[in-house]
Design a protein that fits this description.
mainly beta, Neuraminidase, disordered N terminus
Length: 209
């Protein structure tokens, strides 16, 4: 019988044999069994859980802090934590970062704060770090930002300055791999087709993609 490794998470460097043994032994964490939907318009404080396996109606996971409507925010995750940042709490934008443990459910708890309050922002993450970019520092979105922040998801604390986007903009979209993050589109307030990239585990200004 194989001696399966006991893994707390799936980070690090593993060869294919080790991954196969861990999966077959049931010790490899599976972070792709459900999705969480954070906030939005009325009621706006709810976080809902959707199961990919059952395709059933979403169920309540918990609530955001401080339990008020929150939209135009961003969310990111590791295999263990779901994180919610920024957004419009009407009539003001917020700098609040909050988190929940994915496996347990329940209400979100305070993580820290962004370097500035804003909505219409975007994020990317790998298993270690989350990077949050762009947005507007006022509501409605009239004061666009080029700020890029980062957090270490396994800890708590305020976000740290990462660098700047090549162009200040709001309503940006984020996408990424474990190594690189992309921030695309948005408004200045005119619509733009800009795509920037960063290396997630470094710091510095974004570069035109």
């Amino acid at each position: 019988m194989a001696n399966y490794p006991q893994l707390d998470n799936a980070s690090g460097v593993w060869n294919l044999r080790e991954v196969y043994d861990a999966v077959m032994g049931g010790y490899w964490p599976n972070g792709n069994v459900f999705a969480l939907f954070h906030g939005g318009y009325t009621p706006g404080a709810n976080v809902e859980k959707y199961s990919f396996a059952t395709k059933a109606t979403p169920t309540l996971f918990g609530n955001l802090l401080p339990g008020v409507q929150n939209y135009d925010s961003t969310s990111l995750s590791s295999i263990t934590r779901s994180i919610h940042a920024g957004g419009d709490t009407s009539p003001a934008v917020t700098d609040v970062i909050e988190y929940a443990t994915v496996a347990t459910g329940g209400n979100f708890a305070d993580f820290g704060n962004l370097t500035s309050a804003r909505d219409g922002l975007a994020s990317v993450s790998n298993s270690i770090r989350g990077v949050i970019a762009g947005g507007s520092t006022t509501s409605p979105s009239i004061s666009v930002s080029n700020i890029i922040d980062y957090i270490t998801m396994a800890t708590t604390g305020n976000a740290t300055d990462f660098g700047d986007l090549t162009q200040s903009r709001v309503d940006v979209v984020g996408a990424g791999s474990p190594t690189r993050g992309l921030f695309a589109g948005g408004r200045t307030p005119s619509n733009v087709n800009t795509i920037d990239f960063i290396e997630i585990m470094t710091t510095g200004n974004a570069v035109d993609f």
